[in-house]
Design brief:
alpha+beta; 20 helices; 10 strands; elongated
């Protein structure tokens, strides 16, 4: 009797899922199978994900691996739900047609089938929301990889290439006529030998422009370069897992604290390191993850949330829920939450703006409106840490205030920073001779001052290595501003000295400190060699033998005049590289 009463309940009268399941034993079995199946799917998915993270394929093809991990769970869930739905539609509904509800109302079985369809739609929406960021990220990585290839072409190969890869893919063809700054006879002789052709390939005109052109030796150099980079990564991975690294320990893939870079992070580390080879085990485990921990969610990462939310709203509308009521309730909650978190959200959106517009980034040298000058240590959605260059202090500033105030960024898109040394010399020295000697110091600085990797700190139109038939270190790359250096200026008649200034342009803010130190040492050496005297800053009555001092200084006039003839005075229009 109870069963007959229960069977008469219409779909519109069901209040809970248990009430719905109580109408049919077949529905109960289907629900149990679905629940057990979902639990089993989740368990299998976790084991599959853990297993895949330990495989080499996961590191060499991270996007495909993530795609497989993201779609496997939804596909299996859809298959399970679809099988149960077919069972309900073909067995339960056909076997018990009397359960059809009257007046257009859904029966118990039809309502259960609609619930299963809802689950299917939600799973499909979830799968789509997971695949979108993977596809967008893959597109971004492809763009980054093309940028790496352009950098490789610009530098004529990377230092970790296997042999001379660049010239295996490209052939250099010299111009038909002698370039500006080269004699026609010398040009003809150089084109007759392999060594001469190599020298011509590295040649730069007085404006810093290369000569000749490159022709492809293979059909698709980009693909060949990609194969070379993947081979480098394969060696890196093998060195990590075999113990052939700095620590001598076999690094394990799939660890919670990552010990091995996937290929995307490996490429990024190379990019940040000037495309030098990535050394296995050079950083502690988790280094890359920690460095990227504070990065904000990008639009492509937030997009899946919006897509999944839209799927849920669509399902609610399908079930007849008043979306206007949902929107009103959600809007009121959002307004209250926004007022409570006003400052937090203000800092967060300032954080997004700083990241998106690249106002500054970690490592940039900035000066705050208060005058504080330092290096950006870390940017978070709440505060930004700016560290003094000498490690004296750390300024903690609300991130939003950095967007609202004036900031001087010494690093962003700034390829020319002056490194200036001021000096005063004796009134007994000839100013033109002093200018010439300072010009010599500047020329020495341009060619001799290098960083630990041998790259010149001073920016110049033609890298000094080219004159030695060596590849450029990059000091002459992307220099689109017309500058003449070194610059020497006679600045002032001081109380006890003639004041001069010497400056050259270096490649970044930090390079000026080493450059000025080295220039002062060179200046001391040259002043000592040519007897250029730096007077004591005194104001006593001078009782020395000025005539004798003038004779002493004049003894080296001929040597100093030779410097004028060779280097000029710095103000006579003879620019960089001119003799």
């Amino acid at each position: 009797m109870a069963g007959e009463e229960l069977s008469q309940i219409t779909a519109g009268q069901f209040e809970t899922v248990p009430h719905l399941l109580a109408t049919s034993e077949a529905l109960q079995i289907a629900f149990i199978i679905m629940t057990a199946g979902i639990i089993g799917i989740v368990a299998i998915y976790k084991r599959f994900s853990s297993w895949m993270a330990t495989q080499r394929f996961y590191y060499e093809r991270p996007h495909i691996s993530k795609f497989l991990r993201s779609v496997m769970l939804p596909i299996i869930a859809i298959v399970l739900i679809a099988a149960i739905n077919v069972h309900v539609q073909t067995n339960v509904l056909t076997e018990d047609p009397g359960r059809q509800a009257a007046d257009g109302m859904l029966s118990a079985s039809e309502t259960f089938a609609k619930i299963l369809n809802t689950f299917t739609i939600i799973v499909i929406g979830y799968a789509a929301s997971q695949m979108i960021p993977i596809i967008l990220t893959k597109r971004d990585r492809t763009i980054d990889e093309k940028g790496d290839f352009d950098a490789w072409f610009e530098t004529r190969g990377f230092s970790d290439d296997d042999g001379d890869l660049f010239h295996k893919l490209y052939k250099w063809t010299p111009p038909k006529e002698a370039p500006e700054g080269m004699d026609a006879e010398e040009f003809r002789k150089l084109t007759g030998t392999e060594e001469g052709m190599a020298q011509l390939e590295q040649f730069r005109t007085t404006k810093g422009n290369p000569i000749g052109m490159y022709e492809k030796r293979v059909k698709n150099p980009l693909e060949e370069w990609k194969k070379s980079e993947r081979a480098k990564y394969a060696k890196y991975y093998t060195d990590c897992t075999s113990g052939n690294n700095q620590s001598g320990i076999k690094l394990r893939p799939g660890m919670k604290v990552a010990e091995i870079y996937p290929i995307d992070l490996w490429r990024e580390e190379k990019r940040l390191g000037g495309y030098e080879s990535v050394v296995p085990s050079a950083h502690p485990p988790g280094y890359a993850a920690k460095k990227r921990h504070e990065l904000p969610k990008s639009i492509k990462q937030l997009m899946p949330i919006g897509l999944f939310a839209a799927t849920i709203l669509g399902v609610l509308g399908w079930w007849g829920v008043d979306l206007f009521v949902v929107a009103t309730a959600t809007g009121g909650f959002s307004i209250g939450l926004g007022l409570a978190l006003q400052e937090t959200m203000k800092n967060y959106f300032a954080y997004l703006r700083i990241r998106k517009d690249s106002v500054f980034k970690e490592g940039d040298r900035i000066q705050l409106e208060s005058g504080y000058n330092g290096l950006v240590h870390r940017i978070t959605p709440l505060v930004t840490y700016v560290r003094d260059a000498l490690h004296e202090s750390v300024a903690v500033i609300p991130t939003s205030s950095l967007v609202e105030s004036q900031i001087i960024n010494y690093t962003k898109e700034n390829q020319l920073v002056p490194a200036t040394v001021k000096v005063g010399v004796s009134y007994l020295n000839d100013p033109k001779q002093v200018e010439a000697i300072l010009t010599k110091v500047g020329r020495r600085a341009m060619s001799e001052i290098v960083d630990p990797k041998g790259k010149h700190l001073v920016r110049q139109y033609r890298c000094p290595y080219l004159d030695q038939n060596k590849p450029s270190c990059g000091c002459d790359k992307d220099l689109h501003v017309d500058v003449t250096q070194p610059v020497v200026r006679f600045q002032n008649f001081n109380d006890s000295s003639l004041d001069f200034a010497l400056w050259v342009y270096v490649r970044n803010y930090g390079a000026q400190f080493k450059t000025t130190t080295e220039m002062r040492i060179m200046m001391y050496e040259e002043f000592k060699r040519y007897d250029i005297r730096i007077p004591w800053p005194i104001r006593t009555v001078y009782q020395g033998d000025e005539k004798r001092e003038a004779e002493e200084i004049g003894a080296l006039d001929k040597e100093r005049d030779k410097v004028i003839d060779e280097y000029g005075t710095g103000t006579d229009g003879r620019g960089e590289g001119e003799d």
